[in-house]
Structure formats: structure tokens, C-alpha cells
Amino acid sequence: MPTTETFEFQVEARQLLRMVIHSVYSNKDVFLRELVSNASDALDKLRLEALRDEVSGADLSDPHIAIETDPDARTLTVRDNGIGMSHDEVVRLIGTIANSGTAKFLRELQEAGDSADSEKLIGQFGVGFYSSFMVADEVTLLTRRAGESRGTRWTSTGEGTYTIETVDEAPQGTSVVLHLKPEDTEDQLHDYTSPWKIRELVKRYSDFITWPIRMVMPAPVGDPDGDDEAPREPETLNSMKALWARSRDEVTDAEYHELYKHISHDWNDPLETVRLHAEGTFEYQALLFIPSHAPADLFQQGYQRGVQLYVKRVFVMDDCEALLPPYLRFVKGVVDAQDLSLNVSREILQQDRQIQLMHRRLVKKVLATVKDMMTAQPERYATFWREFGRVLKEGLLSDYENRDAILAASSFATTHDKDAPTTLRQYAERMKEGQDHIYFLTGDSRQSIENSPHMEAFTAQGIEVLLLTDPVDEVWVEAVPEFEGKKLLSIAKGEVDLGTKEEKEERESKREQEQEEYAGLLAWMTDRLSETIKEVRLSSRLTVSPACVVSDAHDVTPALENMYRAMGQEVPRVRRILELNAGHPLVSGMNRAYAADAEATGLQETAELLHNLALLAEGGELADPARFVRLMADRLERTL
């Protein structure tokens, strides 16, 4: 006997349903696109499993999607004869949301407020099946997995619970019956039992789907001459033309955009469309899209990356990671090859020479498109870099072959212009006379970098510095030694030698005198601070601050140390260099105090405080904050 079980929606699913129903009601038309898209995926999966002999007893005679309406009963049915779902799959997939970013998504959705922002956020997660409840007050899903004998019925009003029942008879595939909400007589544009409305939505959203979408016309209502028993010929609503196989002149931007929305589940238009057609010994076509915004889970483990792989217009694989590297994981699209085997696995693709050739060319095409966007469409490029620049720079670590192309397509914040980023080539063209290097400084924010003591000499001499604030910047600058023959140099490492030849000679002469004058103090401080400091020396980069802490030229930075430790990699503590500004009253005063009494307690405390102040100035962490506070309080008390 069939049994019916009642379940409660997962908390996140219940919240999402409520937000979908009430936040994006003005755009409820898209529910049909989502249901048709799900049906198309089910047909793709059935064909793929059949080609791989992974399913037996399946009906493959007439794969299609059917849409039926019943104006009297106010129902709309979307049916496919695809792969279907087993009972366990229905339990696992419907009613729960297995997405690690769901909580964050719901919070952002609640904060978004207006429907326009809500749409963008919902598009990032793909509401899919749940969008049905925007137009229906009850949804019934009947499904049977291909090759199985029994089916499953799922029913819910979208409130707190749903029921699941095992049924003895059900057609192969899945049908979703929407019991539509009461008709609003003032809202004729959303009559989803109307054939013209269904035609309009399919043409707008799903014309490119490769499976026939058929509609059985309802019997005419109130027609005394009509024959309700006469067979009605189904009408095919979509053209089923693969957009990537058609010439550019035959396809509109709107059609490209709808294809993008279908494969990405994004409700926004893409930022850029990339077409590629390769002929010769190995033929393939690619239609790729750069999104207009980064998905919320782009940096989360498990993010599905890659494009769809087809072979001779036969769907083979979703999220084919072998076609694009991880740093281009935001790119969506379709690649259709002519000479690959249909029975391929992800492991085989990693070693396939043809896939490797496609990979190389697709990467170069995407990078060239971004570079062209930089010069021809600066506003679009600015959007791209804001959304995906951090991801693209990951390629500087992993893709040596395309490193120059990635650098050429990258831009960076700079002291030259607070509002406009710069390219490395633009930086090189502005370099001052006598300047040999491209200077940069990493940090948590632009403000913290601009206020860093390391910037003082560069600001005083008007020398441009790149301001790198993304976490990945700490890593890639270690791996990229130069750009077009010009060394990339951190201003927080090594020694700084700025200015013309004459200025350098004059500064060196002065420094020799100061070095002799401060030799005793420097040696004494090096000894006193030897547990945490490698050396104390005079600085050529400070003009205002009394001291700063720098790394040796080839040492790992503290930020990079912390990143390695956060990833579970133990690295030895690196002792750094404390630089003193000989022109600062505090430093000159310490020198006089040292000459008077090198063992004075106050002098030792001042040396410790000076080191801690230098650490704080660069945003570093103190080894003993409580001691620092105590010493500062004592010093302040003496000034009262």
C-alpha cells in the first residue's frame, strides 16, 4: 500500500520560500523559465546516461517538454520524460537547501529591500523549483526515475510542510502541476493559463533549448460548435537552434543573454559575450559569458566552476573544469567539440590533448577580451575588475604561460590617482627620471597603506606607489619578479635608494656621517631587541615618523606568514629590521641619552616602546600588548 509521509521544510528553505514569494513577485514570469530549464537538464541527463549505458529500460523514443494549461481548473503543468527522480532524490533535493552560503544569502536578501536588488541576489543562488510558489498556492510534483518501476508524488502549499507519497503508476520523468493563485482581473498580463502568454514566455526565455517544448492547446471554452473529443495537435514553441552554431548575424544580444541566464541561473544580463570558432584538424565552437557580478559563493570551497561541454550538440558534461583554469571559474558558457568521444570522464579530460589545446585557446581568448574591454569599454572593464579582479590575479600564481597576459589585463590602485586604477604599463610610462623599479606596498586598506611610515619618502619625492589590498596580492608579488624588464619592489622591504645619481651620492655622504654618529646606539638597540629584531639601522625612507619596521629583501612578509599559518603550514618566525629616522627629535634624543648612560632603565624602555610603535604604525601585532600599555601609561603619567 502506498504510504504518505509528511515533512517540515528545512528552516533555510522555509525562509527562502517566504522571501521568493514576497520579494520578487513583480518578476514572477521567470518561474516558467526555471521549470523548463529543470526539465531540459533532466532530458540532458537521461541522454547522457543512456549514451554511457548507465540506465536500462528507459524510454528514449520522443524526448520533449510538454506544457499544458487548464483554464477551468486554473492549473499549469510542465512535464518532461527525462531522467526523473527516485524517492530518495526527492527527499534529498526538495525541501532542503544544501548550500553553505544560504544563511548569508538570506541575510543579504533581507537587507536588499527593493525587488531589483532581491532579484540579483536570488539569481546568484537560482531559486529553480521554489519559484513555482510565486504564482501557485499549491504545487504537486510527480516523478519516476528512468529504469525504476515506482514513482513519487510530492505536494506542498509552500508553507511549513510537504508530503511525499510512493505511487505505483507514474510516467517516466517529472511533471510539475501548479495550482495557480486566484486570477486578478486587473492583471491580465499574468494569466498563465493563456496560450499566448505561454508562447511569449517560452520564446523570451527558452527558445534556444535543444529539446522541443510543446503546448497542447486547451479546449475552447463556451464554443457550441467545438468538438471537445477531437485530437489536438501539440504546438512546438521553441526554435531549438543552438546559438553557438549560428552565425553572429543570426543571433541577437537578447538571445545570447537568455542563453546565459539559462546556463548560469543568473537573472542579470552578462557583462560580455565571447565567441570562438575553431576549424581545421580539430573543430569546436565556444560561446562564453563574463557575468556582470560575482556570485556570493565564488570564494567558497565547492563552488561549481567550468563551462558546459557538448559533443556534436549532444550534452556531455556540466561544469567541465578541464576547459578553464580555476582563476577563470566565474566564466560561464558552452563549448561544443566535433571530435571528442561522448563517453568521457573528468579524469580522461584532464589528460586529453584536444581538451588541453581548447583550454589554452579559451584562456587566451578570455584574457584578450578583458584586455580589449580595458581600452574600448573602460566602464565595463571597471565593473569586471571590481567583481573579478581578485580572482583573475590568482592566475599570476598558477599560470606562468599566461602571466604576461594576466598582468596586461590587470589594474591596480595607485597614489597617482585616487579614483582611477592604473595598469603596469601606464605606471612605467610615468616613472620619474632615475627611477628603475615599480614600487608597491601591500596592506589591509588604502587608508592604512597611505598612512604607513614606509610611504613617507615616496610621498615627499612624488614617486608613485601601487596600493595592493587584496589578500592574494601578498602572494603573487612574491612570484612575479618583474614587468617588461622593470623589477617590482616592495617599499617595505630592503633598503630604499631614491632620486637622481647626484641626490643618491649626496644622501650617501650624509648617511655615512650619521652612521658614525649613531653607531653606538644602533649596536646597543640591536643587542637589546635581538629576540625580535634582526638589525637596527638608519632609514632613508622616513621623513616624519621616528621609526619603522621593514623586512629583509628576500624575507617573507608578516602578512604572508600569517596566511601560511592560517592554512595550517608552520613557518619559522622571521626577525625583521628596525629603521630609525636620524632627523627625528626622539631618535636624536635617544642618541644623546645613550651617550650619557647606556644602562639607564628609561632608555631601555624607550627602545622597546619605539619598536612597538613602529609595529603598530604598519598595522602589526604586539607580542605583549599589556606590557606596552603599562609602559605607555607610566610615560604619560610622568608628563603630567
Kindly describe this structure.
This protein is an alpha+beta fold. The protein folds into 3 domains: 4-222 and 230-238, Heat Shock Protein 90; 244-374, Ribosomal Protein S5, domain 2 (2-Layer Sandwich); 502-639, Heat shock protein 90, C-terminal domain (Four Helix Bundle (Hemerythrin (Met), subunit A)). Helix content is 39%, strand content 18%. The chain is built from 21 helices and 22 strands. The strands form 4 sheets. Strands 1-6-5-4-7-3-2-8-9 form a 9-stranded mixed β-sheet, with helices on one face. Strands 10-11-14-12-13 form a 5-stranded mixed β-sheet, sandwiched between helices. A 5-stranded mixed β-sheet has the order 15-17-16-19-18. Strand 2 (65-70) and strand 3 form a beta hairpin. Helix 1 (11-23) runs parallel beside helix 4 (102-112). It is elongated, with a radius of gyration of 33 Å. Residues 98-102 and 114-126 have low confidence and may be disordered.
Q: What would a concise description of this structure say?
A:
Helix content is 39%, strand content 18%. It is α+β, with helices and mostly antiparallel strands. The protein has three domains: 228 residues, Histidine kinase-like ATPase, C-terminal domain (Heat Shock Protein 90, 2-Layer Sandwich); 131 residues, Ribosomal Protein S5, domain 2 (2-Layer Sandwich), CATH 3.30.230; 138 residues, Four Helix Bundle (Hemerythrin (Met), subunit A) (Up-down Bundle).
